[in-house]
Design a protein that fits this description.
Layout (H helix, E strand, L loop, with lengths): L9 H14 L2 E4 L3 H5 L2 H4 L2 H5 L24 E4 L6 E6 L3 E6 L7 E3 L13 H11 L4 E5 L6 H10 L6 E5 L2 E2 L15 H7 L3 H9 L13 H7 L10 E2 L2 H14 L2 H14 L12 H11 L14 H4 L7 H7 L5 H13 L6 H15 L3 H13 L7 H8 L1 H16 L2
Parallel strand pairs: 6-7, 8-9
Antiparallel strand pairs: 1-2, 2-5, 3-4
The protein binds one RNA strand of 76 nucleotides through helix 2, strand 2, strand 4, strand 5 and helix 5.
Length: 415
RNA sequence: GGCCUGGUAGAGUAAUGGUUAACUCGUCGCCCUUUCAAGGCGAAGAUUACGGGUUCGACCCCCGUCCGGGCUACCA
């Protein structure tokens, strides 16, 4: 269903408040908010400190009925019963019971601003009216809402409805153990998507924050849905651990069937303006193979467009650090040139042929194969870190490999 | 301040009164090796916040203390 917008249901909310005012379950109040709120500010008197700290005002004279008030001039407050307790069921925290004396006469409908005939509903009213209307059976939300739940339970009763089952789940905390907020960096799911986390990996990570089933860690969404139960939800707030999130992403990047992964890589390459439509058509198999080759070394989606760029484009930089690390030997220029010639002359382009060619050359030049392998890798993909060399050569194709080697020879010669 | 709520290695969790407190991430080491990951093997890391009590026996039940978090709006 939906989405529904609260702003389109304002009349329903207002009518509910009016109805309660008529029945006596609520009343009009035009006290200034500061007075009623009973916040610390008002009560910082010596007297207050001497006693049990600031005392809150939860009931005021308007409760007894103040003539002449209406929704056009005042707010509507809920008339909380004097004495007694309010109960509700919480699937995570168990049965809850709160003394009514602890519950203030909260506002349901605000007093109107100038030019308005009535004010808007508050959150408490809106959610209850909507949830009754939509026959919601379970209200699952963060435990920061637990303290306000008695107010809502009262509202359900007053509106002649049965309260739903509530389930308050633990909050997610930042490394400093305060509730996750902007201050801790990214807090929206969108920002994690933008960073290149796979939605399913993120879901898996999140699901395990405050819930678990045995030792299970890696769980596809379908499995989580199947195994989830409110009974397994913990009551302890959890700290958001970025390294573990990344671990999940690596797992998904590794284990997902390649066809499920491809659309995400496509999206990433499109964003980087590297995408070629043929990779979804006649060259799909090549694309799939290349992604499969790259993915064991990736952590986040952008890896496919950054250090893997040379697999998808002919315009790429040679990483200075890679050069520094593997282009040390002075004879490299000559060797890479000979390698290019030998590869170009190969009757067949396959893994073993490339392998033999390179090793023979290394032996002939009296240098360890590793030296030539690493230098070649830098030449053809511009990076010190990449998939195994001969597989890389295969997906790149002979022309690219030979061309890139010759470019490398020039670069080496000019230094 | 008041009310609510929580406290098991650095992080996420398990063990729902009964052997040396288990698993995952992270950390460290080894193996694999063509770079770097992944993977495999192993290690370090916890007087279960602290103090009492109940019990033959407590992470688990009770009380207190400390610490954390939430709420305390005519915000959601």
């Amino acid at each position: 269903e939906g989405p529904y917008f609260q702003s389109q249901r304002l009349d329903l909310h207002r009518d509910a408040a009016l109805k309660l005012a008529v029945s006596g379950a609520a009343y009009y109040c035009d006290c200034p908010p500061e007075k009623y709120a009973g916040g610390d500010a008002v009560e910082e008197t010596e007297d207050a400190k001497k006693e049990q700290g600031p005392r809150r005002i939860t009931r005021c004279a308007c409760r007894e009925g103040k003539p002449g008030l209406s929704a056009e001039s005042a707010a509507i407050r809920f008339r909380v019963p004097l004495g007694g307790v309010t109960r509700f069921q919480d699937a995570v925290f168990g049965p809850r019971e709160v003394s009514n004396d602890e519950i203030e006469d909260f506002v349901m409908l605000r007093s109107p601003k100038v030019g308005q005939t009535h004010g808007g509903p508050t959150y408490q009213l809106s959610v209850v009216v909507d949830d009754i209307d939509m026959r919601i059976t379970h209200v699952i939300r963060g435990s920061d809402h637990i303290s306000n739940t008695p107010k809502q339970a009262l509202l359900y009763l007053a509106l002649g409805a049965t309260p739903p089952i509530f389930a308050h789940v633990p909050l997610i905390l930042g490394p400093d153990r305060t509730r996750l907020s902007k201050r801790h960096g990214a807090t929206s799911v969108g920002s994690y998507r933008d960073e290149g986390f796979l939605p399913e990996a993120f879901r898996n990570f999140l699901a395990l924050l405050g819930w678990s089933i045995g030792d299970a860690e890696f769980m596809r969404t379908a499995e989580i849905i199947e195994k989830f139960s409110l009974e397994g939800v913990s009551r302890t707030n959890a700290v958001f651990d970025r390294p573990k999130l990344e671990w999940f992403n690596v797992q998904y990047l590794q284990k997902l069937p390649i066809d499920e992964l491809l659309p995400f890589i496509q999206g990433e390459l499109e964003r980087a303006k590297l995408w070629q439509p043929e990779w979804a058509g006649e060259k799909r198999e090549w694309f799939s193979k290349t992604v499969d080759l790259l993915r064991p070394r990736t952590r986040l989606l952008p890896d496919f467009a950054t250090w893997s760029r040379a697999f998808f484009s002919d315009t790429f930089e040679i990483d200075p650090a890679a050069r520094e690390k593997f282009w040390k030997d002075e004879r490299l220029g000559g060797m890479l040139g000979k390698l290019a010639d030998a590869l170009a002359a190969l009757p067949e382009w396959n893994h073993d042929a490339c392998d033999h060619t390179l090793r023979e050359l290394a032996a002939a030049e009296g240098v360890k194969a590793g030296v030539l392998i690493n230098a070649t890798r830098v030449a053809i993909v511009g990076q010190a870190v990449a998939p195994p060399l001969f597989e890389t050569m295969l997906v790149l194709g002979r022309d690219r490999v030979v061309n890139r080697l010759r470019v490398a020879v020039e670069i080496l010669a000019s230094h």
